[in-house]
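Is biotin placement plausible here? Inputs below.
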Amino acid sequence: MIDEKILHVFKSNRNEFISGEDLSKVVGISRTGIWKHIEKLREIGYEIDASPHLGYRLVSVPDKLISTELRWNLGTKFIGGEILSYEKLDSTNVLGYTLAEKGLKEGAVVLAEQQTKGKGRLGRSWISPPKAGIYFSCILRPAMAPSSVAQITLAASVGAAKSIREVAGLRALIRWPNDILVNGRKVCGILTEMKAEQDSIEFLVLGMGINVNTDLKDLPEGATSLKAESGRDISRIQLAKQILRELEAGYITLRDAGFASIREEWKMLTHMLGSRIKVSIPAREFEGQAIDIDKDGSLLVRLDNGFIESVSSGDVLIVR
Ligand code: BTN
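Reply from A.M.:
I modeled the complex. Tokens:
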């Protein structure tokens, strides 16, 4: 909290020196205390000038997804209320799940600069090279039935697509259920895991991975990054903050107003409806035309014999 207060003073007085005395008054700790915190911030990667006569000045902030940067002007009510950032984790979903079992609060976010065992859907892995992407998991404790989880993940995919459009200026589209594609290639995936009883959810771990400034050579076939598609570096901090804001907005809409408006937004952001698709579910594969998503978020597919099949999990590919 002290660190956040000091950074707040610096950021509200861009490029100006602030005396140790002024900082100590505003933050409410001694000048020695201020000095200790400045040292700590420098260790994290903040570049801070110190002048015996003028005081301290913030020169640059680290390009790291850390709490002090993410929470600055975040403006959410509870998503990101607590942000735990790590240099390296096996998987933010795995740590998120363990901490949620121990009581980590709704809205808490676990983030890593790199994952060594990033988890994807359907037992796949998520390649998570250091400092290039955004890899995080958010703990949610919705008062909903386990059958509504798909709606939350769909709401999150709407939020991710909107954020990518806004921050990177790219035409992000959703492929059911919750992959985000740019120019037909995947930039973002979501993996939601939960602990639940038959009728109630104890918690959800909503994990999201985004290839932001990732080199194409580090990514699997069929994947791309926002940098590769836009030709410029995209601010991971700005994008991560926007995603947290949109995640909260979507979650609150869902909770207070139900799935209808999320469903409409999802439909506006997908390129699939009307297309012929191939569906792969664990036991079989089939083709048909994607026609809609239903009130639970399942994909409705019209088969060639006219029968409409509702698909609640699996993979889809547009065939034409
Ligand atoms: C998919 O498209 O298969 C889902 C990918 C989800 C990846 C994210 S990265 C952060 C979080 N931690 C994980 O281990 N997985 C998710």
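Short version: The pocket of biotin is lined by residues 91-93, 115, 118-121, 124, 126, 135-137, 179, 189-191, 207-209 (CB under 6 Å).
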